[in-house]
Amino acid sequence: MSRMHNLYHSYSRGLCPFCRRLVDGARILRDGKVFLRKQCPEHGTSEALISGDMSWFLRSQTAIKPGSVPLRHATEVSKGCPDDCGLCPDHEQHSCLPIIEITNHCNLSCPVCLVDNRNNYMMPRESFERILDGLVASEGTLETINVSGGEPTLHPEFLDFMALACKRSEIARVSVSTNGLRCATDRAFCDELARLGVYVSLQLDAMSGAVLNQLRGPGDLLYAKERALENLERAKVRTTLVCTVARGVNDGHLGEVLELLYSRDFILSLTLQPAAYMGDFSPHDPLDVVTIPDVARALEEQSAGKLKKSDFLPLPCSHPSCFALTYLLQTDSGYVPFSRFLPLDKLLDLVANRGTLCPDDTLEGALREAIDDMWTSAGQVPDGQKILKSLKRAIFLLYPEDRAIALEERLRIGERLVKTVFIHGFMDPYTFEVERIKKCCTHYALPDGRLMPGCAYNMLYRSCDPRFDLPVGP
């Protein structure tokens, strides 16, 4: 590509994908896409695609909003980002979603795995309790914490850990990220998850055995996923589907996963994650990868317009290149994206410093304003009467005039009225940018009190974490 076809957009700072040294770079506009070009003094120039749609990228940059700092910091500013992670005072966002990895044992060998499952660590109970205390000290209250691994359900004290977390009044939701193998074979386990009120984030990349094997390794994984869905639905466990999206592998299978979200009441949300290339899945062409707008476009094409690319907005609590999402309001004839009856500025205000829709006074005001607007523009919005009826029902259930209800009860009610589709773009050594990591709101919570931005931890800190410095287990 000749130099004249490149248009410099902005300065960036990231990692050399070969030695992971911090280097200077620039974002380049070319052929309707956005590329990240970096220059390493040892390994020369590298380039990677960071957005498959230049217009999407430029619009998303206007959604950046100031962050909300945590109540305390665990590290000081010394060497500069990303060498002071912990969080340091230079970090620009609090923790919307803390992740607690309780084990690095796993019963799958996924090529797309972002972590190095060395099968040599099980978190002690006192470490788990210390992390919970640290999160409350840093955040005060938390909308959600996520328990992960490895495969966290392999931990011998897993259910005890869940009970400990669910008892904390400062934590509204406790979720677990799982491949679903235990859910598929143990109905009593699913019943206990439901009794505790644990949410399940179920790894589900497609409803195709061949695709699952390509991304997750050998085995009859489709059968296991189907049994897990059956058992979770029977037990009424509130579930999120999590789908890693890889170019040429399952990017043509997103519609079938989206249909599960629309058709199953127990499934509350869908998270789609463009593949980050690390570990065994690392050989790839960094100029030909799936990005957030590519996922949004694929959803529109594979859903016959039920969901459109224009329905998605960047999540301003993180960096706009890291997250996009849309909320879906349940109506008598199906689900309607919020973007079709709420202005963009109102939507951005609702998620300014959180990753989920919170049924607080701000949401009540937005819904009441939407009702007023629907009355004054009757007939101009497709399915306007059905949307209006659903909005009035939401107001009646969430904000009754005859009694006050707690926020936690509103959260549960809201889960029956609204579903969510997230697109979460992780970074790899080719796409890592300091600007994005400083706004990260998805953090690994460590026993020593540090909160580590996810992509920085996976690329720079995980390999030297003393917890895992043991011989690799079976």
Characterize the structure shown.
By secondary structure, this protein is of the alpha/beta class. 32% of the residues lie in helices and 22% in strands. The protein has helices at residues 54-60, 125-139, 158-166, 181-185, 187-196, 209-216, 221-235, 254-263, 292-302, 344-350, 361-376, 384-398, 407-417, 434-437, 454-461; strands at 7-15, 22-30, 33-40, 44-51, 97-101, 142-148, 171-178, 199-203, 239-245, 267-274, 313-314, 323-331, 334-337, 418-424, 442-445, 451-453. The strands form 2 sheets. Strands 5, 6, 7, 8, 9, 10, 11, 12, 13, 14, 15 and 16 form a 12-stranded mixed sheet that branches. A 4-stranded antiparallel sheet has the order 1-2-3-4. The longest helix has 16 residues, at 361-376. Among the domains are: 1-51; 308-427, no CATH class.
Topology:
Layout: E1 7-15, E2 22-30, E3 33-40, E4 44-51, H1 54-60, E5 97-101, H2 125-139, E6 142-148, H3 158-166, E7 171-178, H4 181-185, H5 187-196, E8 199-203, H6 209-216, H7 221-235, E9 239-245, H8 254-263, E10 267-274, H9 292-302, E11 313-314, E12 323-331, E13 334-337, H10 344-350, H11 361-376, H12 384-398, H13 407-417, E14 418-424, H14 434-437, E15 442-445, E16 451-453, H15 454-461
